[in-house]
Amino acid sequence: MFSDSEEEDALLNEAYAVRIFKERINFQPHCIDFVEKFRLSSDQVEDLLEIIGPALTHATVRQGSLTVREQLLSTLRFLACGSFYHAVGDAHGVSKATLCRTVRRVVTALNNRLFDELVRWPECNQKRAQIAQDFYRVGGMPCVAGCVDVTLIKIRAPVTDEDQFVDRHGNHSINFMVVAGPQLQAFSVCALAWETQ
Questions:
Q1: Which domain of life is it from (predicted)?
Q2: What is the pTM of this model?
């Protein structure tokens, strides 16, 4: 039958599972429903790629790594549709774990490169006066500097300082606040635990 070495080789081959890569879907920038899927035009995606592309470039030359474009598009799709990692991963041909890591990398890159530039209070009095005029024109509200919206985002109970994340409903959550302008621009964004506010 089998010699010891043949049996060992057979066991070793079974122990190392063959990696299977899903076929990736290449979304063309000219497709009709591009904006519907990603909430940005193809030109806006190209601009973002120029800004955050260097931060997303992999140092590896491995066969299965995602390109910078694939990372950005899969993250934009996840953020645009509010679905689960499984659903978006299946649509883009990546695993749930890969998509989770990718979303974290892209959002971190966006925050590091663009947050301070895009999310800020107007600096000069002229811009503030213009915002008040815009709010009056849009909604008939005089002397408004921004609209505040706050929501609770449920989270799993953290291991440390668990009591700081319990909200008034008894759930574990973080408090997320946005102050927005009349053209939906963000003036302030804050996400904190209760005790740190």
A1: Eukaryota
A2: 0.68
